[in-house]
Specification:
- The protein is α+β, with helices and mostly antiparallel strands.
- Helices cover 16% and strands 36% of the residues.
- The strands form three sheets. Strands 1, 2, 3, 4, 5 and 6 form a six-stranded antiparallel beta sheet that branches.
- It is globular, with a radius of gyration of 22 Å.
- The protein binds zinc ion.
Length: 306
């Protein structure tokens, strides 16, 4: 498949799937209060807009209303299956979900009957990534309530031929996706500052960065610098699956900052099995792969040992 003519023929075929259906159907249940309540409990989201006598559904539940569950979706589109089979036959047998974007046009309320249509929006030219060489496939799902467009859900996968060597030391870490909602955070990191958002209306602090306040809904905010002190709120030690550029075992840690908000990070300077809930940690910045600066947290034992 390295012959340029074969590649261009394949790309032409792949491109012919753009705009073709990727699935459609009706939500298995109408929007309903029990599912909203379970979601909010699982997420720890106590926003009063999602409870009480006239709740709306959390916007990020958009996809939940269209999921097929264990028994699968009601209607499958053959074009999407054909496209994936075509990529398989071209050697792109591995798949990884890369990102999703959602847009919300109107709130969903209990009783709303959900229908959806998904299309294959784009298939990229051949790209080489750290995982391997392949094609990005983007699908767009329009979600409707009572026929009215309520939101869109874009989902992107990479179908690729796995690289021969995926040794951790040879691969670079994936870069953060910087967008208009979180650019301020990454600008802060570049200056070795950990910035959190404070709502201008109700002064509630929030992290990760969001365009509006979860407490009062205000879109006005000010970035404030965290002191850098924190404690380990929870953690898991990753053994499997291995990802290129990450060398297991390592601890993925939920840090509670002194300011009260929590963030996912790594703890440095300590063996992963020695990480403990409640352990005090201190912010530091590390540069990975000679480029990207990342906020991480150093355990005190390691400071003494130095
Ligand atoms: Zn607020």
């Amino acid at each position: 498949m390295d012959d340029p003519e074969d590649l261009s023929r394949l790309l032409k075929k792949l491109k012919s799937y753009e705009g073709r259906p990727a699935g459609s159907g009706r939500g298995k249940d109408p929007v309903n209060a029990p599912m909203i309540r379970h979601w909010c409990e699982a997420m720890g989201d106590a926003n009063p807009a999602y409870a009480g006598t006239d709740p709306i559904a959390p916007p990020t539940m958009l996809q939940a209303w269209t999921m097929g569950g264990l028994s699968g979706p009601a209607g499958r589109a053959t074009a999407y299956a054909e496209l994936l089979a075509l990529l398989d036959s071209a050697g792109c047998t591995a798949v990884v979900a890369t990102d999703c974007e959602q847009e919300y046009l109107r709130p969903l309320r209990p009783g709303d009957v959900i229908t959806y249509e998904a299309v294959i929006e784009s298939v990229s030219a051949r790209k080489t990534t750290k995982l391997g060489t392949g094609h990005f496939v983007t699908t767009r799902m329009d979600v409707r309530a009572g026929g009215e467009l309520a939101g869109t859900h874009r989902f992107r996968i990479l179908k690729y031929a796995p690289a021969k060597s995926d040794r951790a030391s040879a691969a670079a870490r994936p870069r953060p996706v910087v967008n208009r909602d979180n650019a301020g955070f990454w600008d802060g990191v570049a200056q070795r500052k950990l910035l959190i958002q404070r709502c201008d209306a109700c002064a509630v602090l929030r992290f990760p960065w969001l365009p509006g306040c979860g407490g009062c809904g205000s879109p006005e905010w000010t970035a404030v610098e965290a002191s850098g002190a924190g404690t380990v709120f929870s953690y898991v030690v990753m053994h499997h699956p291995p990802f290129p550029a990450f060398d297991p075992p390592y601890a993925v840690v939920l840090i509670e900052l002194a300011e009260g908000v929590r963030m996912i990070s790594n703890v440095t300077g300590i063996a992963p099995e020695r990480v403990r809930i409640g352990m005090p940690v201190e912010l530091e910045f590390v540069r990975v792969d000679g480029g990207q600066l990342l906020p991480v947290f150093r355990a005190p034992a390691a400071r003494v040992a130095r």
